[in-house]
Write a structure and sequence with these properties.
heterodimer; A: mainly beta; Immunoglobulin-like; four-stranded antiparallel beta sheet; B: 112 residues; mainly beta; five-stranded mixed beta sheet
Chain lengths: 113, 112
């Protein structure tokens, strides 16, 4: 049982480049989330999805896009990368029940230079 | 969306009991209280969840008073490996407007 899998683990981008961070979960969870975490700070919600075909903005969506075509996958797209997007990105998933435990991936460390 | 307030940091020594309190004055009737732990360079990990009174598992206990406006995470006999950031979250994920929002958390340092 793999849980939540994120790829890649590390990436260096040049300013203006684009990339997609991949996230896959094998727990049949309804809800999926993308967060970013800057050094020494808490997690900020970028986008989330309550099911396939449904996505919504979180706290810091600017500069990012998401899609949810299947229950398992929730990729995060960065267009025109900027140094301010240098961060660690975490994907998470959970069931849609009351407090439901969320499971997190191991993160993608992204550096934009 | 219920906002939570936690101390920014706490210090303790190995073997002591640590209690971290979270304030959530605007908690709604259907909201659950959930605590997560995060080690450096890792994603948060679920510790414990409760609705009222007391919940205990192999890792921690969660105390929730009758008015549910606060909660206390209790870590018995901490060790150096309990040094981490602890987050308190409040919400009802059945509510489609609920977003899993993390606050700043409490940075716990356990000293030898």
């Amino acid at each position: 049982n793999a849980g939540v899998t994120q790829t890649p683990k590390f990436r260096i981008l040049k300013i203006g480049q684009s990339m997609t961070l991949q996230c896959t979960q094998d727990m049949n969870h309804n809800y999926m989330y993308w967060y970013r975490q800057d050094p020494g700070m808490g997690l900020k919600l970028i986008y989330y999805s309550v099911g396939a075909g449904i996505t919504d903005k979180g706290e810091v969506p600017n500069g990012y896009n998401v899609s949810r075509s299947t229950t398992e996958d929730f990729p995060l797209r960065l267009e025109l990368a900027a140094p301010s997007q240098t961060s660690v990105y975490f994907c998470a998933s959970s069931y849609r029940d009351r407090g439901g435990e969320a499971f997190f991936g191991q993160g993608t460390r992204l550096t934009v230079v | 969306l219920a906002k939570t307030t936690q101390p920014i940091s706490m210090d303790s020594y190995e073997g002591q009991e640590v209690n971290i309190t979270c304030s959530h004055n605007n908690i709604a009737t259907n909201d659950y209280i959930t605590w997560y732990q995060q080690f450096p360079s890792q994603g948060p990990r679920f510790i414990i969840q409760g609705y009222k009174t007391k919940v205990t598992n192999e890792v921690a206990s969660l105390f929730i008073p009758a008015d549910r406006k606060s909660s206390t995470l209790s870590l018995p006999r901490v060790s150096l490996s309990d040094t981490a950031v602890y987050y308190c979250l409040v919400g009802d994920r059945r509510d489609s407007s609920y977003k899993l929002i993390f606050g700043s958390g409490t940075r716990l340092l356990v000293r030898p």
